[in-house]
Amino acid sequence: MTAKRKADATRRTAATRVAEVRELLDRYNYQYYVLDNPEVPDAEYDRLMLELRELESRYPELLTATSPTQRVGATPAAAFGAVRHRIPMLSLENAFSEQDVRDFERRIRERLPLEEPIRYSAEPKMDGLAVSARYENGVFVQGATRGDGETGEDITQNLRTIGSLPLKLRAADAPRVFEVRGEVFMPLAGFEKLNKEAVARGEKAFVNPRNAAAGSLRQLDPRMTAARPLDLFIYGIGQVAGGKVPAHHSQVLQLLRRWGFKICPQSRVVESIDGCLEYYREMGAARSKLPYQIDGVVYKIDDIELQRQLGFVSRAPRWAIAHKFPAEEALTTVRDIEFQVGRTGALTPVARLEPVFVGGVTVSNATLHNVDEMTRKDVRPGDTVVIRRAGDVIPEVARVLVERRVSGAKLVKLPRHCPVCGSPVVREAEQAVARCTGGRACAAQRKEEIKHFASRRALDIQGLGDKLVEQLVDQDLVRTPADLFGIKTEQLATLERMGEKSAQKLQAAIAAAKRTTLARFLYALGIRDVGEATALALAQHFGNPAALRAASVEDLQQVADVGPVVAGHICAYFGNAENAKLVDRLLASGITWPAPVRPGRSPLAGRILVLTGALANMTREEAAGEIAQRGGKVSGSVSKKTDYVVAGEDAGSKLKKARELGVAVLDEQAFLKLLRA
Ligand code: 5U1
Fold first, then answer.
1. CB 30 within 8 Å of CB 24
2. pTM
3. What is the pLDDT of residues 41-71, one digit of tens each?
4. Could you please report the per-residue DSSP string of 630-648?
5. Which positions are annotated as active-site residues?
6. Does the chain have fewer CB atoms within 10 Å around its N or its C terminus?
7. Burial class of residue 89 in the structure, from the number of CB atoms within 10 Å of its CB (0-12 exposed, 13-18 middle, 19+ buried)
């Protein structure tokens, strides 16, 4: 083939792909903007858009005015009147890495001869819907969606129903025209309640809070919008006439707050790109605890004169950038569905996936929780699914793209026999969970029991990870947790990647773990439904294992939080001869603990403490455990009800708040003294 014919063929292939991608993007656009019901995650949409942009820049002759790359947002729906934005509503460039953010500042410095560090206003990027609100002589007159940035939809009556939008500015001398821009969103609590109610009525649930917010705001009947839990943060201004605005963006935010707008409380000024990146990390860590969804943070040069000098490129300012968090949803395919057997024999269906990068990590497995959930979501091997991994939460299958299902894909059935040991699987009436009946005859249950026993919150055997436990059980060196204490260094040294030295170290760690607390020991036994809190309550109530073992179901129910079901599990555990023998062996192996503190005697009993900063002598978890053992409670935030704030090294805003509220602050030494008292 000649070079020319080769090039023609490549162009024809590119043209076909461009048409395919455009069709997909048009379809996803429609689902997103018009139906408020997206089929694919944003990351998939962005990936296709990027592909199309690249193809169009390589083959400019394929570019058309109607290409999805040629519009910034949605076209206004005919149902709402159109509003032309006097000042266009801009979009933001995205940064996905630290390098992208550093490049952003490099480009700024190439344009402006600045010597000093640049100050930025850093703000969370709300995952909602951009809106504009116009005030004339201090009175709200018009609300609009962003639309394509030039023209939006008139949502005046709907915006009016959002309580946090002031209908009149709290300004003595308001400008003749004052336009604000912000983001309408649905707080998570409201979203969950709304979806629960929809499902109870047999209606479809919203896919995420952003779509719920968009769907609510674009209701034709404003009474419907009023019934939805919407909120609004304002982050900037548009047209201003007949008035002056401050010289810095952070001052604008303060002015907006004074005039009655709700400003995102996490907004703050930071110094230089390093300050921006620190803010990004902080918000990333705080993200899962915020009462609303954010999908990144925004950095804006604080000095408005510098903003003016930098101007815009296309429809995005050169002085601002959105630094996105890793996408929490991604598309992949289910290779297979297998059943995992847990410590108590529970069978959990797990989707084995084509590895996919989501929420900042590569995910190859996703839990399907139980058979009912798997059936409800209708997940089948071969399916294309949306995987969701939010914060540190275990990845799960959010939904299936049924329209992409290959023919013949079948639902997987609950096996009648355990896939590991072959024992019968039973499902108690009205229980979602099915269990393997093999008990310790099942290698999977034996492994999980030992993993739990050695885990950090139980006996905390340093260095005994899951892989080692699996080898120990597979090679029959260990059958129960009690066998760990009899294992010899030579036996440990036979394990994969385990030398003489590591084996000695592991053996020492096993011996060291014998010194524990009664609560940890009880938790380590892995009794069904006995978590850390119940184990602690049992330890405090009974004081020793003999008294606990002798307790009846009625006696057990005297313990706080122990109801008839948990009491039944505890009695059943100790009533089982094999378990009783295990506990005897564990106690005989030399497991010891200090006498439990009688909570009533500790000065921390009944007190509420907040931990902040790093402690030199213990981790936060250890400190929380010590407080709980003494009958105290640890809270995550400082309020008037807080009794003490324990401030370690680098204590931050909680210490400040304690001082403001006059709450007693303990340094580490004072805290240790109280623990000993
Ligand atoms: N927090 C915040 N979100 N957001 C979105 N600020 C902000 N600013 C924006 C956009 C589109 O645009 C201005 C920088 C023009």
1. no
2. 0.62
3. 888 888 898 899 999 889 988 888 778 876 5
4. TT-EEESS--TT--EEEE-
5. 125
6. N
7. buried
